[in-house]
Design brief:
alpha/beta, Rossmann fold, five-stranded parallel beta sheet, 5 strands
Amino acid sequence: MNKKAVCIISGGMDSALSAKIAQKDGYEIIALHFNYGQRTQAKELECFRKISQYVNAKKSYEIDLDFFKQIGTSALTDVSIDVPTDGVEEGVPNTYVPFRNGIFLSIASAIAEKHNAQALFIGVVEEDSSGYPDCRESYIEQMQKAINLGTKEQTNLKIKMPLVALRKSQIVQKSLELSVPLKDTWSCYQDEELACGVCDSCRLRLRGFKEAGVVDPIIYAT
């Protein structure tokens, strides 16, 4: 029987590499994407579909979660809140979506249980965790325990975080080594046509490419 993994794929660089690593490790890929009312939803979905094909996903899920816009409080889902572009915000940034990874992992677990999958892959990176509490390795480890307590006895899921200790430059380098199509990934928080180049996510991505000594293949407005 083939071993299976549910891969949460946002359409970004980290989750694309995470899914590629799952494929390289011999897992049959079940690709999972969430449309949660984020500003760049259409672009991220387009990238997800390309990445899913690239990793030869046997099954794909595109889950719509409209309640995040009702909850609000995040610049990613509430257009009345400006996305920070000065790179100086302290504490948890306003782009944090409340408990997003916890909700994503819960839904991913239900899908994994349906397919008798052995693993979940998520592209969290500790480098991001100073702002996002749900990107921390310690949190994901506790979530794994809770998931396995709340599922069938024969369901024994391992949440794999292959990038959690990497810097962005290392993620770029590893992606190039594994031929991940970085041109088909998207990181910008606020624009879909051209990446803005100034939001926190664009800055982090651009710095990673610069430190890796290579040129980002996507086009930036700034």
